[in-house]
Every structure is written in structure tokens, then in C-alpha cells.
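INFO  loader      accepted 1 record
INFO  loader      residues=195
INFO  predictor   begin
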Amino acid sequence: MSTNNNNEFPVEFPKGKSPSSPLMAMSRRQLLKRGAAVGSSFLVGGGFVAASTASWAVEVKGLEPQTMAALVQIARDIYPHDRFGDELYAAAVKGHDEKAAEDPAFKQLLEAGVAALNSLAQVRGHPDYLQTGWESDRVDILKTMEASEFFQTIRGGLVVGLYNQPAVWTLLGYEGSSHEHGGYITRGFDDINWV
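INFO  predictor   done
INFO  writer      dumping C-alpha cells
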């Protein structure tokens, strides 16, 4: 096993391997030792956010882990798809964390936006945005911030961040580009059977 020394805790990877995506490869035991549960969906620890099932994790470099967990939930609430796992939403908002690590003003926008959502959730009787149990309650909270720069930044980034993932294409039934295969004419452009 080799160790990744780029963060504050060692993560062991199989010899000669490292994670090929923004989602970290880490054992379930490592995750559970380093994190605290947030709501029922996320495990948050020093420098990472993971699924409470420990099936995926994402390293956090620029934002607070709690903020990153909130961004994953916000992404799911803005573009809800029952067939999409949280790891797809985490990969979609990972770019915001990377930009926040380089741009203090952008980091402040995101941290303040999540803090505002948490305040709105508390006014409505919830501990914070992440621990607001019903999706409809979270959506109502988001609607109050719809015109804000924070909301528009997240929503706009998700259009590309979420829907430009090949794993998402498969779930939506999109076969990808046909240009390199000769175009759509010979690849079923007219195979609709409902007309």
C-alpha cells in the first residue's frame, strides 16, 4: 500500500494506484474513524465528505467539509433524479471546491450562501439545511434564495458539472457523441416507435 500525503490524514491506495476521479478511494474503516454523521446522508470529517454508507468520498480542499456536504444536497435538491447516486452530485460540485481553494471571494460566496441557507432552515425549526428532513422543505428554503448570486452560481455550474458526466449520460439514455461513429443517420436517429 502507498500513502497519499496531500492531505492531513493518510489514505492508503493499492500499490501503484491512486484515485482516478475526484472521489477518493478510502476504506470504510478509514472513513468511519475520521468522520461524524451529518443527518442521515453524509459523513463529514477533516478534509472530506462521504456517503454515510461509505460507498464514496470526496476530498475537500477549499471549503469547509460541512459546506461541501450542503452543496451536494443542494445539487440534488435543484436537479433531483432518483436514479442518480450522491457521488454524481459530489463530482458535479467538486469544481466549486477547487475554485474556492484558489479564489477567496468565491469561497466566501459559497460559505456565506450555505450559512444563509442554514439560518433560513433554523428560522423554520430545523437544525440546519442538511438536517431538514423533507425535500419539499429544503426546496422551499432554496426558493427564497433563487435570485441570489449564490443560488445562480450553484445552479449554473450544475448544468455542466452534472450533465457532462458519462455516468449520467448512461442513466439518462444518452449514447454520447455520434460524430466519431459517422453521425446519427446510420445510428438510429429515426428509430422512434411511438409515432
